[in-house]
Amino acid sequence: MSGQDVLRTPLTVLVSGGSGFLGQALTDALAERGDQVVVLDLNPPPEEARLPGVSYIEGDITQPSAIEAVIADFGIDAILHLAALVIPACRANPVLGAQVNVIGHINILEAAVKAGIDRVVYASSLAARPRGALASPANLYGVFKHCCEEISKVYFLDHGLGSVGLRPNVVYGPGRTSGETAAITRAMQAAARGDAYELPFSGKMCFQHVDEVTEIFLRCLDKPANEPVISDLTTELGSMDDVADAIRAVVPGAAITVANNPRAVPETMDNGPLRAFLGAWPAVSLVEGTRRTIEAFRETVES
Fold first, then answer.
1. Rounded distance, CA 197 to CA 187, Å?
2. Beta carbons of 11 and 119 less than 8 angstroms apart
3. What is the CATH number of the domain that holds 24?
4. Is residue 4 part of a domain?
5. What does pTM read for this prediction?
6. Is the C or the N end of the chain the one with fewer CB within 10 Å?
7. Alpha helix locations (H) across 14-98?
8. Per the domain annotation, does 90 fall within a domain?
9. Distance CA 6, CA 290 (A)
10. Distance between CA 215 and CA 196 in Å, rounded?
């Protein structure tokens, strides 16, 4: 444990959407380092899957009272806002997507203002960046995330609420099951089992292992923002062929192929705001992240 960790005052953290892939990873990391964690989720995990010492509350972020009650009952002093519907769900039900992703975001910020909470970190997405012929987000999920970033700026203008909005692109690792880009993790799982798998799209993206993303979110939570910080997490692009190559580097001969189905990528990316806010952090290379993911899947199979 570093000296910085020893001196850090434990937080009481509300994690919205804590039952999701990134939410579970962050909940685990927060609990491990000694923070009190309260997960607010519409579908909390079953009792046997819950972490000791973590409080799980069933609640809907589209209802302000649900958020405000948790903050009051537990004395919340920091918020990690992750709850959202991802690309396929927003496409299938745009109205519900807007209610959860946009109205839910407003409810989180409003509750933070009312409670005087000055540590708010939320998950945006690289999908919020414009791209393609129309110079717009490529899907409704991206539109909603862009809207949330703008709302966060206005909450700073109106209320002085600083916040950190982080834009992951493709986060992969054990436990990633939902969303279009979960295909990267599924390909690694297939290789661990010795199965063939075709990655359903091609093109270049930013790949980040969940360990690196977790580290970034925790560091942002530990440093209250005095303005609205909005940033991409990385600018390092890789291709789906790079993913297939990384898998084969860990599992020689793995039958991983790539479909000829390009996904649009933003023309520009910038993680300068995040680096200015945090400084440097240890990156996890694609090959190293692939190795960690496949080893975790192998351990699950063996157990």
1. 6
2. yes
3. 3.40.50.720
4. no
5. 0.93
6. C
7. 21-32, 64-74, 87-92, 94-98
8. yes
9. 32
10. 32
